[in-house]
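Hi D.,

Good news: the full-assembly prediction came through. Inputs first.
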Amino acid sequence: MKRDKVIGAILLAVALSAITGLAIITVFIFREGVPIILRVGPRQFFLSTDWDPSLGHFGILSMMVGSLFVTVGAAVIGVVFSLSLAIVLTQFAPPGLSAALKPVIELLAGIPSVVYGFVGVVTLVPLIRQWLGGPGLSVLAASIVLGVMILPTITSIAIDALQAVPKSYLEGSIALGATRWQTVTMVLLRAARSGLVAAIILGMGRAIGETMAVIMVAGNALDVPRSLLAPVRTLTSNIALEMGYASGDHRQALFATGVTLFVIITILNTAALAISRQRAGKRRAT
Amino acid sequence: MRLSPVTSQRLAVGFMWLLTGITFAVLVFILAFILVHGLPHVTWTFLTHSPASMGREGGIFPMILGTFLVAGLAVLLAAPIGVATAVYLSEYTREGRLTLVIRFGADCLSGVPSIIFGLFGFVFFAITLGMGLSVLSGSLTLALMVLPTIIRTSEEAIRAVPTSYREVSLGLGGTRWQTVFYVVLRSALPGISTGIVLSLGRSISETAAVMLTAGSALRLPRSLFDSSRTLALHFYLLSREGISMPNAYATASVLIIAILALNLLAYALMRRFAVKVGH
Amino acid sequence: MQTSATTPPLAVQGFTASFDGQPAIKGLNLEILPHERLAIIGPARSGKTTFLRSLNRLNDLSPGFTHSGKILRDGKDIYDADVDVGELRRKLGMVYATPVPLPWSIYDNLAYGLRLAGIRDRAKLDERMQAALGYAFLWDEVKDRLHEQAHVLSGGQQQRLCIARVLMLEPEVLLLDEPCSGLDPISTAKIEDALVALKEKHSIVLVTNNTKQAARASDRTAFFLLGELIEIGPTAQIFTRPAQKQTNDYLMGQFG
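Then the structure:
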């Protein structure tokens, strides 16, 4: 019994240090980044497109727009492909095939982002440049590459969401004479809606945090992108590109960018969590 | 013109299969592209020698070692701490506001982009603590990065163990720790090890955070305080600066093969544990 | 076993058990006598399971659990601060309504209790295992399969395995919480037969929803209703001439 108490104490100590460590990171980042937002003025920081560290101008709007475009683009691609994958694997593929294909999807998740970026630069960007015009390094390229990268995330959560729908719902629909596809659209997708939305939001959270692949294919121009074919710089690329040589206010501004990312992603994750929990609660209540 | 339900189904399902096919084609393409261009250059010499003229010639041995050290150390630190934290949170405390806050925090941090951890590591470890750009800064940063994920996946695996198992163990006179060790951890092992292996894979692939903390030295690191370049970073620099395409492909091939092997290992581990546990 | 012929293994005195302030058992007084099979019957929410779990202090695990009164074992309150709870639980072996084989081999399931207590000697384990399985009427069925996974056994076999698992620790009292619910009649009969043999060495407390089982398989019967002990007495008497009206109504199927 004594031994039990000692072990409990050790575990407590370890847990506390882990939690403290993680809390320190959060506090640190905010402490480094928030002051400069206040000094420059939130409106100036978030709503100005003028980013010129040498002059002390720190407006991240063009990068926020860049991140937004690229993330939404990735989400569109991700949704279309992931949903198809998830529906096919859970509803239409024979069980042996599904089981074999799922680990393969996980494999997509394991490929390093720099490899994605590289393949994108070497194959996709020239294609875009040749067939669609523009420099090739573009919102479109970044969206496609990111879309592929977040596929595994969205797919696996979507598969879980689809599989969580009680079989009785589906059987009931088929018993009423619906085809499998009608069952999918009218019953399955609607029942799994919250889980699917959560999957997409989490995918977007991943996309917005991606750095290396985006640096390699997005062009990194500081202007607000005017079209899909225009080059773009995202919040993450900005940090990665300038951190190495930034100091003083510049460095703090990069931290402030980090704070912005942190908050955006936390909001996304919380929303995803709330949505999936809300539906689950509803279902249990009925 | 209204399509019959059967026709709609055929079209829709056909379309989805097409997209599925494209997805897998893309995966195969990416792997093939890298491996076809790179494998011919992956020779024994390449793997065991140091680079020369900024990586244009020579091999990648220091990068292999660097990756091994940075990623390995990170997981070696984060895994026991993460699992212990997860055990404490789920087995030794009551569910309450505190545990909810902690879990929320861990969830948030596991979604935070690696570049932000890189930022933190750079300013905190490299500068404030004076470790400089080094293997140590890099692995500590990565350890913090994967810690929330390990805590989360371990906790999920632990909570998936049925309460009845715990009651049986306690009913037979076991102490809390005995129950945790012999029953809970044993049953949660597949989930926990998958989380750890995934974190290892993530550490190996990580570029942005190590760039800012472990640096990009080409030399063999002789201590934990030396800067070192990882495979992923080396690949990035080689390709971006256009230094040597064949070497870039070769480096990427080594990286990919390592990750493929890791994934296979994870898969095999999971199956072996699951069978033993009798699910 | 270790209990003397005059001291009952367990004496419950004015025991009240509450969860978050709501009492589940109120002012309970009863004794568990050596070598008896005591059936506890009553409708749902009568406190039967709570009572059982109070005996081996499993209720300690529930966050809002509080109690008053005493449960004496050899004259000492089991809720005293210096009681070795592990030893208590080894001596009061519990079997649950749903069989819970741990996800290991039959051998490991049976050996677990002793291993927890620090006994690892193969010979001793094997010896006790044979005895325990014999008492649970399971030896012949599994003696050649000890290293198979426990979950491949049928429901009835799994439950007998669970009984054997607690028998490995040579308990004084067996606490059985509706052990035959969900089992087929043959398995149920086997377990009831096992209980007859087991009472020679143990006291048995059998919670059951099935009054006919209580009538078949016990020496005394206690009727619980809404957390109170309404009546307790020899089984034959309870079932033919119950003293309380509520007991009679329950047995007649008026409620429950």
